[in-house]
Write a structure and sequence with these properties.
The complex is a heterodimer of chains A (401) and B (523).
Chain A (H helix, E strand, L loop, with lengths): L7 H4 L8 H4 L7 E5 L2 E6 L3 H10 L1 E5 L4 E6 L3 H8 L11 E8 L5 E9 L4 E6 L4 H7 L6 E4 L5 E6 L3 H7 L13 E4 L6 E4 L8 E6 L4 H12 L4 E3 L2 H10 L43 H10 L3 E8 L9 E3 L7 E11 L4 E9 L9 E9 L2 E12 L18
Parallel strand pairs in A: 3-13
Antiparallel strand pairs in A: 1-2, 3-9, 4-7, 4-8, 5-6, 6-7, 9-12, 10-11, 11-12, 14-17, 14-19, 15-16, 15-18, 16-17, 18-19
Helix pairs in contact in A: 3-8
Chain B lengths: L8 E7 L3 H12 L4 E4 L11 E5 L2 E4 L10 H6 L9 E3 L4 E4 L5 E5 L2 E4 L4 H26 L10 H15 L3 H10 L4 H8 L3 H12 L11 H13 L6 E2 L3 H14 L3 E3 L4 E7 L2 E7 L4 E9 L3 H9 L6 H8 L7 E8 L16 E4 L3 H12 L8 E5 L14 E8 L9 H19 L7 E7 L1 H8 L35 E3 L13 H14 L1
Parallel strand pairs in B: 1-2, 1-13, 2-10, 6-15, 13-19
Antiparallel strand pairs in B: 3-4, 5-9, 6-7, 7-8, 11-12, 12-13, 14-17, 14-18, 15-16, 16-17
Classes of the chains: A alpha+beta (401), B alpha/beta (523).
Amino acid sequence: MQTSERPPVYRQPLLTTPFFECYEPLIETRAFRQWSGYNTLTVFSSVEHEYFAIRNTASLFDMSPMIKYQISGPDAEAYLNRLVTRDVRKLKTNRVTYTMWCDDNGHVIDDGTIFRLGKTKFRLCTAERQLDWFLYSAIGFDVQIEEITQNIAALALQGPTSCAVLKKMGLVGVEKLKPFEIGIFKEPGFEIMVSRTGFTGDLGYELWIAPQHARALWDALMAAGEARGIRPIGFGALEMARIEAGLLLPDSEFVNAEFTLRVNRAHTPFELGMDWLVDMEKGHFNGRRALLQQRKEGLKQCLVGLEVDGKKPAIDALIYDSKDGRNRVGATTSAMWSPTCKRNLAMAMLVAPHFSSKKELWAEIYIKRELVWQRRMVPCRIVERPFYSPERRKLTPPNDR
Amino acid sequence: MSTPNPGKTYHSIIIGGGHNGLVCAATLARAGKSVLVLEAAAELGGAARTREFAAGFKVSAGAHLLHALPGELIRDLDLVRHGLSFSAQAIPSHALRADGGSLRLAERKLDGSDISAADAAAYTRFSETMARYAAALLPILHMVPPRLVAETWAQRFEFMKLAWQIRRMGRQDMRDLLRIIGMNMYDLLDEYFESESLKGALALDAVLGAEWGPRAPGTVLTYLYRLAGMAGGMGVAQPAGGMGAVCNAIAKAASLAGAELRTSTRVRRIAVENDRACGVELESGEVIRAEHVISNADPRTTFLSLLGPAHLDTGFVRKVHHLRASGRAGKLHLALTGLPSFKGLATTALGDRLLIAPSMNYLERAFNPSKYHEYPTEPALEISLPTVRDSSLAPTGRHVLSAVVQFLPYDNGPDRDDNRARCLQAILDTLERHAPGLRGLVTAAELLTPWDIEQEFGMAGGHWHHAAMGFDQFFFIRPVPGAAQYRTPMDGLYLCGAGCHPGGGVMGIAGRNAALQVLRGEK
């Protein structure tokens, strides 16, 4: 038997996405990182350039490793409504909603988006696999759950010129899509599902296709976007955009409640400042009773947005209620200097009552200059999230660029 | 029968009229609450029912000997006045052997022709030691389990009391109890005894109704648990009129206290309003309202069928789904034209408790096939001939043989009827070896496998303890964390069956504790 007959998965521990060969020539850094079993890019050439593509032109991010579940059957709606915190009954066909799901203690397991593709057909997208939890949740429901990650290739096209790129590509009427709306287009010669969604807080779309059309879609996008500054981006740039948009990242803002070992390390949606995602009136859902209890007892901690003085990002910084640093009241979860807002931003988990305080707080920031460490106590204050939300994010139809 | 008061809201509806449901009803009714018991079968009693299995022949359908009904419950509910009486109490056991040898096991006293002096002495020492350990566990048996994560000083005090109970045994006993409690019965009995027959008989007590053989860890716990149940009562006893008579007495106590008892009334689902159980919907479509719904059904049926997972959180459903509740005990009923004669057993002892488990290895071999969903060729048996002491159960001169059969698989496959018939023959062969000529006396035979028990009594998995006994389903995590104090995640819904602490056996404590929790919750 010839060894070369073996399936490639054994020779290659990390998979590559259907788009990999399209953008492989554009990779300058070879800065790979693993995402749910796939090799993905941290940065193609420069994080800053890629970031500005998101905010000023158009960016392409390969999100094929995003875990996708197809949920269908007569009880699909009831199943999802019991699983997640929002009221799925209100989700109309061809609409998308962002939501969270909790364990029995009301602690967040993960967040993701639900696409309603029909009366009894949904797609749930999330960063990590959790079939186990979804299957246990299906006990007593007439519902089929299938992981279809490998059946669908996906790109996020984000930025002010993204709509124009799609129009140039020939997608008739794509500009009519409202935020969180889904459209199906056949113009490129194959079926493409477009959702006006994204992880950047900007105008943008996510494109979903059968994997065999990856090359055709990629080439069409790059051609249509050439005059509109399109460029592929990696995780580094996306991370900057998502902090500005005030979006949560698993393992930064929260830990999957099924994975925490220590007590009090998991967080409820309320503690993450996501009250608006929780519909207490819709009937029973996972964690509802625990969340009711927490609402009664009040929060002991909560995630907030911070604006920090100076320009040094408050990465992994402890937060105090006075400059002397005697009383620790929390720590930052994500932090950056925002080139667009021209502000030093952070998200931080603060204990009561400081998360609702108007008083000045202090971030302990360490800076290394030519191998010498300096410790700075920098004033900071609670500000609204999202930090950045341009009008074009919601405008329909988007302005032509 | 329809509801006497349509539109009435009861204080409590109890789903299932087994002994625990009836004790719960009696306790609540005596506290002045309006109670309605709904039983799906035509008769009350659940698995603790006396049932005619052949024309004129009656038998306790489930457990046939009483060992754990607490004296205080009998007194509190005035069960004797309501008709409870015993055909015999402190019934001794006999370990039978096919070669004609037999042992008589009584409380702290062992008799037998081929018993060594060492074994006789060890038996006394073993009985006394185990009785002390069982006495230390007795309070655990009776109490409402404290919450594992103690939040109040009262709860912490409960834990301290438990620790003190063990500590006050003295250093040596405490150390030994903590050493053996997680052990298996096989190794423990090897430490004490030489006689295979004796060890087999004692080991059978440890695994009766259980799903494991004597080599499984935790079987010392189930043995001590059985002893603790006996520590509060009258030893092994045979209720006059069969186990159903016990339930009838409890039902009478409940009824006289004002509880309404409806039979042939199957509940379709538990009704929920504003995230609170508010009554039940019957198979007939009738809805009956109550402030509290108390389920005597097993936890899986209660949560997954009657309430439905949609009202529960996934983590909790996962725990209920994984509940070990696969029964391995079967029940044999024989109608006999006359009394059989067992080798080595005096005819005067025929009314006693007869055990066929001639060695621990025999028992372990009887257990082995059940691991692979197969039937044993030589099963272990706990036999009672109730008609020896209670002639009301059979026509004059006729007799009934009732036996608990260990270990039968839960078999819901297409061949189950053939398998059952084959197994019945294997049991009859085993009996014939010990009582030659018995086959010729049999006029009717019935074998209930765990699957049959599930069908007949509605216990999911056919486990007559509703959930297996073991450290993983014990005390403050029985049946599952989140429902171990007779309360459930659903407001207004309580459990009162054998799936709760203290578990299976005709005890009634779960029913009483559930009632106390309901009353406590109102304060």
